[in-house]
Amino acid sequence: MKWPAIPLLALLFGSSLAGVPAAPVEPAPRLPDEYLRLKTEAEKFYAEKSYAKAHELYARAMVMSNLTTNEARWVFFRHADTQWRGEAASQRADTTRLDQAREALEQLLRETKRVEDRDQTWAEAQESLGDFWWTRRGQQNWGAAWPCYQQALDWWAGARDIELARERYLAIVWRCAQPPGMARGFGYGYWGNQIPIGVLDNALKIARTDNEQARAHYLL
Question: 186 pLDDT exceeds 90?
Fold first, then answer.
């Protein structure tokens, strides 16, 4: 896996195809204003890690019938994602809602059969499942988490939005190395979480700050 494959090709072809008329682009269908407001508010709660509140809003979006296919997939994903994250924060003994959310994420991935249909929603679902197995308190299941993280990392390595891809790629690498809330004395590799050299080499290449570079060097 080399960083960054598709963005680099896009830049090369962009320079050689200057002056060639672009193919007409179909205008994106307009989404309902009510949904756009709901999604904005839900994502604000998500950024604040208020997952239960975000889940309530995405539950309302689940019953909207006038969404595009791609947006409906996003709502389905976020509904499951916020359900397990909110439930994990509650620390209830009953795992029913956790299992339902996991099964929904796995369903979304199964339904994305063709490689060319693997979009950001698909990559986010892979990352969410990785987090499900890796970041919940007392649930550091590296064997189940890594295949999901690896798929997400591969996707972001080829994403066209280079700055967003850099941010997301590094965030996954740091989380793989050190899950949130790791107690003192539990160092890198304690749960068998040895990140492949190629992934760490990518992290070093795209790191920008001194702290990021030092962290990638340390993991290498």
Answer: no
